[in-house]
Structures are given as structure tokens and as C-alpha cells.
């Protein structure tokens, strides 16, 4: 006993001597020259050059490499540079000690227990903070972080690799890099590897693994409505913001109906997908009412060359085959300074909808192709410049829509069929070019994010049955009427921000944002005779052109009130101006004189402030409690006053806004084998933007108030090495709380597109088979309850099963899968307006699909 006590006292003494000896050295600049290479060797060399001692576990650093560091730097700054690209973090104790370890969520709970109970209370109060950290660094998670699966602790989903722990995902939700389990907000993340292994190819495949998020399809990938926590567009303006890396994508204006064209990025070159739930107005600005979807692409590697190749072949039951080929290469051009990454894909999607009119069999077949190129340049250790170019083009021959008889409750022409008199292709062209600059000024980082993007959806729709049912004589099967909708948007953005490191008990962020959107909305309604447009009759031709310009400043600050508790306050001031010109002619717009254009012009200016207040309390290193209150808004705009509008009807509609309140709990237990993330929220939504019927037409308007409240939970568990299980679920009660007669909205009526319940369960089992190969098998179950489409038609609840199995090693993977195992046909959205006497088009999911994927990585 005396010997053990003596050892404790000796270790405490060593720790105290260590802290005193390095205190002065840690804060002093030193000339350092550390080449790229092994991280352990780099730290040893830095210790010799700076005279500072570092405390770390050799096991945790085994196999890790660094890009090196050069210049006149403090030891803290030099170590931070060396750790870039790893999941390790440094801790500087007030004594000056620099300790290197994984994030708290990757450490074993056992390592947090201090057995120095024999020391007196006064000694513990001085020594235990540094002693605990030294123990954590020395005997923490060990190699398990590298061995574990990449499922994110708390609310992430990643690839299971047969490990015995759940590794942490690092996210940038707060515009800082931090472990997912330490973010004081509801954030979910899915790794790109997981998306590839589950053969995900569209946004619908992503959101199934995120509680509280759903997608209502309008008939094709890239044509649908996203709902987060019950906040879904009740009109055509986006209620969810989308980012790609550091820059926004998609219009804030409702003029081009951006709420219907959510970015649906193929996961070929994605590092991860982050979903931020609840309003994100202070950091991400307009139209992030419900939350944010953030696609994070893979960056070039400045040290290693990597090549990935993949091919998928599949067949839809009672449909045609499909295929997808993809490849990427990342290579350093100048080691540690200049690197490039190139990727691309081609996809043919097999059809399964038969058009008994003119479209023929498998009319919803389609093709897509995409490219992503990135260049990363680091001329200095403190400066990095990244240039990205992303393109994606997709097109389908026809919509994934089945004609239903609403009165009879069944398909008009049989399952998986539709009847069209004119073709209904849909295409989306995406372009995004961005430049991101990060310059480390010491305690403050300067970030510039610049982008140019364009979104060009093109829709063709057969309106013959609808116009015929409405009594228009020019629409008949012999003289069909079709609509071509063109909604191009281009956008220029710039964000400049300063992000501080922690300065004592404070860290802060200050930034400015600018965007300009050029918008066009064109609808051409044409009658066809003998397959050609009829020049003698013009049912309707209308277009709108406009622009939106925004200037905003934002800031937030975090105050650390002790080692366990901190609070964050945020604010954003936004100023938006818009212009809108509309011209229309034709029978539908000017029945008295169809050849005369009617013209209207509006100019609209609006300012808005958004706020954030949040608090985090770390019960232990592995348990986090948080509370958050935040506001969000969506800009209003101009509108044309239609004929028959009441006196005083304004030529504009105003912004809507909401306040969200949430509290959550994140936990990581059983030495990293179990993660739990749960939260409850309450959202008050006011002045809701919706479509307002006036004189037989619909215009943008506002419709009172609503509430959305609910709970969300996700759990992931490694039962034993090789077997992972997980589940997520969400309950959302979203309804109007005010009756508005001119919008035909009733107090208590459910919001469109929002299911009350969603749930997903998943599992993966793997084990060694031979020669470095592992066999694996897994599956998932997805459930979504009833919800309303935009015509207030109920879409029935549905359940989907998916399974897969295969083999893999470090370089190769072969995966066999069956999606929609039970061949369940579900109504996933609505494609047209409900008109009595006309068939209603419901979007549906893909029937049972068999496929095999072969992948190579070296």
C-alpha cells in the first residue's frame, strides 16, 4: 500500500514539474522546420526544436501522418498544424502543458476514472485536472478509433467495418470543425462511404437515415419537397437551405419555385452529408427555416494518391435494367502544397412505368452524368486555397407517376401505368464553381467563400385531361395541350468571416454575406394539332424575370463558464431587395383579348433579424445536455394582382418567420460501443407563405400561424465486434393554429408533406472469411406514416425493406443487394392539381430492385 501511494505521489510530482518547466516555453514563438511524414516523429522533432514537452499515447498516433509545419510559431500553433487531417485534438492546460488525445467521445469511459483517492482534497484540486488529462492521453481510446466503424457518435450513420467501437464524425455545422457528439444542436451526419455501400443514388436514400426529415417526390429525382421537423414549403419557396461545402446552392426567392427543386446530389464524391435541424438563420441566412442540408465533398490529398472505381448493374422487377459507373482520382502534384481531385459518373436508370398513350414501356427511364474537380493549394502553412467545379445533368423520358381515380381509390389503367397524349420529360442542369480561402492569422482565421452557381430545371407536362375536365374546349385527346416550364436561376455569393480560436473563456465569429440571384420563370401552354403546335391558338404564354440581392452581417460568441458549461449567442441582420417583371398573354391570362400582353412590375425591399441562444452542459466527457432557441425567416416578394382581386389587394406578400425551442441529450457509453441522441422541439411559425386562390388563379400569399412539435431519437450499438445495430424514429405534430378564410385554411388542419411518424432500423454483420477478406450482410427497414399532399389528399403510410450482402477487403468490395424486398408500391408524393373528372397523378417509389456493385480502391 505504501509503495502504491509512493508511486502516486511521484507521478503527481513529475506532472507538477512538467507543467512548470513547459509553461513559459509553450507560449513563446520558435523557429520550427518540420517536414511531412510520420506524426510521432514530427512531434519528437518539434519537441527538440521548441524545447516543449508533449504528452500523448504512441498507440493513438500509430500510422498517422502529417503535412509538416514551417515558420516562426508557438508550440500550440505548430501542434495544431501537425494535427490537421486527424481526429486528434490538443489541450493547453493553464500550466502550459500540451496534451494530445482523441475527442472525448472516442475515449473509453474507464479512462476517466482517477484512482488517486488517497491524496488530500487540496492536492486533488490542483493536480487532478492535468492528471486526468495526462491519463486520458496516455491510456485513452488507443487504436480503437481507427478500427471502429464510422457511424457518428450520437446522430451519425457510417460504414460498418467490423470494428468494436463507433468512431466519431467531425462536422462543420457551426462553421467550425468539431466532433458530432459535442455539437449543442440537433445535427445528423452520414458518411459518403455508407451511402455508397447502401447503393444510395438520390436524396430519398439519404433522408431515410435521419430522424425528423422526409422527402415528398413530385415525380423525379431533383423534383421534390423536403420537410424537416414539420417545416415544409406550403407554397413554392424553399423552407430548407442547401449548402455544398462552404457555399449556398439554390434560390432564396420564390419566383423560380425553388422549394420544388431541392438539390439532389449524387453521392459519388461525397465525404459526408450533414443535416442541421431547426432554423439556422444566424449562420446560414434566408430560407433555412426548417434547417439545412449540407453536402461535403472529398478534398484533394496532398500526400497520397488514391483511385476509386465502381460499377453497379441493377434490374427493376417488371422494368428495364440500369447501370452506374463512377471513378475518382486524387493525387498530389507538389507534395504538401498542391493537389488535385477529379471524379465523374454516368448513370442509366431503368424504367418501370408504362404509358398506354404515347410514351410506351418504361417511360420513366433516365440518364444522368456528373463531374467534380477540386484543386487544393497550400503555398504557406497558414494559407490554403481550394477551387471546386461541380456539374450534374439528369434527364428522364417521363415522370415516375401513376394515374389514380381518387373516387375509386385505384389506378385508372392498372398498376404502374399512366396515359399521356404528350411527352413529359424532366431535366435538371446543375453548375457550381467555388473558391474557398482559409488564412490563419494566429488566434483568428480569415475565411473567404465565393461561388457562382446555376440551377436549370425544365419540365414538360401534359395538361389535356385537366383542361378538358375544367371545360376548356381547346383541350381534347385529338388536340392535346401541354405546358413547358422553364425555371433557370443563377446565383453569385460571397461570404467573408473571421473565426477566432478560444481566447481564455471566449471564442467568437464575425462575418458578412452577399448574394445576387438572377431569376426567370417561363410557362408556355400550347395546343397541338397532328403533333405540331397550333399557331392559330394561344392558350397561354407567361414569363417572369427578376432579381434578388442580399446583404447581411452575422456574429456569434461562446462563453465558457467553467470546464463543463458554455453558452452561445448569435445574431444576423439581413437586407433583401427584389425586382419582378411579369408579362402574360393568351386565353388563360387575358380572355377578352388573348393577343395582348398584360404587364406588371414590383420592387420589394425587406429587412430581417434572426437570433440564436444555446447552452451546453457536459455531464461527463461522454454525456452532453443542450438547449437551443433560434429564429429563422424566408423573404417575401412581389406578386401580380389578378383580375377579380378584392379592392386593396397588395402587389406583394411578406416574409414568414419562426421561433424554435429544443432540448437534447447525447450520450456515448460502453467504451464507444453505444451512442444515443434524443431531443424534443417546439416550433411557432407565423405569417406562413402559402398559395392563395384569387379569381380562378393562385398567387403567393400569407396564411396565419402554425405549430410543429415533436421528439426525435437515434441509437447505434455495436453488440459485439462485427455486429452493428441501430434505429431512429421521430414523431412530429405539425398543424395550422389559425383559420384563414381566403386561403381555405382551418385551425387544426395538418401541414402538407409532413408525416407524423418516421422510423428506420438497420443492422450490419461482418466477419473474416479468408486471406484478408471479410464477408458482410445487412439490411434496413423504413417506415413513414400518412401525410397530406399539396392538394390535401392523404398519402397512405408505407414500409420498405432493403437487404444486402457481399465481401470486401482493403481494396475491393462486391455487394449484392435487393431494394424494396417485399415489392411494396407506395405513394410518395403528388404530381398535379386535383380536378374533378381528371385522373390524379401520384408519384411512387421504385419496385423491387436486384443489383450488384463491384468497387476498387487503391
Topology:
Elements: H1 2-26, E1 30-34, E2 37-38, H2 39-50, E3 54-55, H3 58-61, E4 65-66, E5 69-73, H4 75-82, E6 89-92, E7 98-101, H5 121-139, H6 144-147, E8 156-157, E9 170-171, E10 178-179, E11 187-191, H7 192-197, H8 203-207, E12 213-220, E13 223-228, E14 240-244, E15 247-248, E16 270-277, H9 281-284, E17 291-297, E18 306-316, E19 321-334, E20 338-349, E21 354-355, E22 366-380, E23 383-396, E24 401-405, E25 410-411, E26 417-418, E27 426-440, E28 444-462, H10 464-469, E29 481-486, E30 489-500, E31 506-529, E32 532-533, E33 540-560, E34 565-585, E35 598-620, E36 623-634, E37 637-638, E38 652-653, E39 656-669, E40 674-686, E41 689-694, E42 697-702, E43 705-720, E44 723-736, E45 757-770, E46 773-784, E47 787-788, E48 794-795, E49 798-808, E50 812-819, E51 827-830, E52 840-844, E53 849-857
Parallel strand pairs: 3-7, 8-11, 14-17, 21-26
Antiparallel strand pairs: 1-5, 2-4, 6-7, 9-10, 11-16, 12-13, 14-15, 16-17, 18-19, 18-53, 19-20, 20-22, 22-23, 23-27, 24-25, 24-52, 27-28, 28-29, 28-30, 29-31, 30-31, 31-32, 31-33, 33-34, 34-35, 35-36, 36-39, 37-38, 39-40, 40-43, 41-42, 43-44, 44-45, 45-46, 46-49, 47-48, 49-50, 50-53, 51-52
Helix pairs in contact: 2-4
